[in-house]
Write a structure and sequence with these properties.
The protein is of the alpha/beta class. It folds into two domains: 188 residues, FAD/NAD(P)-binding domain; 239 residues, Alpha-Beta Complex (Polyamine Oxidase, Chain A, domain 2). It contains 14 helices and 19 strands. A hairpin with a 2-residue loop joins strand 11 and strand 12. Helix 1 packs parallel to helix 8, helix 3 packs antiparallel against helix 4 and helix 9 packs antiparallel against helix 10. The radius of gyration is 23 Å and the shape is globular.
Length: 502
Amino acid sequence: MQEQDIIIIGAGLAGLTAGAKLAKEGKKVLLIEQHSKVGGCATVFHRKVEGRKTGFEVGLHEMDGLDSAFDPKKMIFEELDVVDNVEFIRVPEFFRLTNGRIDITIPHDIPEAKNVLSKVFPTEKDAIETFFNDIIQNFNFLVKGNLEKLAPISQTSVGEYLDNITDNEDLKFVLVGNLGYYHDDPYSLSMIFFSVAQNSYLNGGGHFIKGGSQTLSDHLAKVISNNNGTILSKHLVTEIITENNNAIGVKYRRTKQKKEGDLEEFSAYAKFVLANAALPNVVNDLVPTLQNTEFQKEVNSFKIACSLLSLYLAFSKPPASLGNKAYSTFISSEDLTHLRDFHPQERTNDFTKKGFAFVDYDIIDSQINEEGIYTGVICTIDYLDHWIQLTETEYTDKKEKVTQILIDRLNSIIPGIKDTIIYSELATPKTIVQYTLNPEGTVYGFAQTPNQVGPSKYPIRKPPINNLYCASVWTGSGGFSGAIMAGYSCAKKILKDDRKTN
């Protein structure tokens, strides 16, 4: 009955990384993806703008860690031939933050960051020194496996930590300026998770994938194909087949039927099944035998992270010609004066108040587009419940209204940019659900809260079904790095288990 060594459900970065590793190890891989292209959030889509094919980066702002000797992705990229086939461009700064009271740019370097912050906040030098010392120390404890030394802050949130080291609210805002990379609330974001992630950016730099993140996804797909693997796009897995508590294959169908009423279903069989899919979808929809089990209850008890809203923009001239100098700029409302009010303001449906980030891809040599085409994105924290109950007309009208609000707010930061916009397209949390199938439209998986962070906290990686594995942002930390490392570690686990049975 076995047709493959392994079937992988979903071609996000975790599925692609696992598939590439397994295929290079000689395993017969079948990867099934419901979308028309691989990559999940690591993709580029194209539109015709004024007669020219224009690419828009879906999700990547910057990838952390590649300049650090401790970054595990470097070894993974070496092994999977990424280094020789994909070029990474260092982003010029960590981020710029402006809120009407301060305007500061934080570099990708801890000594330089401390110097910049000390000049803006001269009375807060002790707090600044404490903050950076602590995130370095927390990172080192984790890397060296000294988990017992992290115990004192295991239940500490970022907001609580910052309240303990400073009363300066603007300094707090700057220190968590890129919070939207991880979560929507500093008072429920794990300080351990935040320390490791921020340290990776500050010590390891931030990089963009030349040509966009699709370049990396396509390369990993090519590794699979070149090693006798098969990638089946536009097909949706509807069930993981089990027999005697063993995963033995999957049922799947075309994402779009060829004709009305065409519901032809196919089956494929393998020794192992890896789900690069949302864990709630796995336990609630794909494995009938997991219904009403403790594992299902545990997975469903975990809090799901926020979603995002993205406004993709094309310009007739580069934003730098209008004075924009930062690759990524975080903008918050001037009336947001206390960190504790960050989450309530983000949770609002009022887009005149919510903070947002603007990424200008033409500050660097991104090579997403040919010369003369300029693109950027406005991104803000958002939630599916802001969109899910609307009628089609209400949904369209709201998208148009939000688009204009965000463009006007960007124009207040970069005067004149509104007049250079030649194309705009808004992707809401509903859009993310459509393309990723993620519950709540999240791109982060489970929320990185203190009680949900750490290997001992996750009901992850190995559901109580033999030969079924899970690898995605839902099985550890979120983001591109989390997905890549989850896929690679899961592939190694499968190879180890396979050796035990042979």
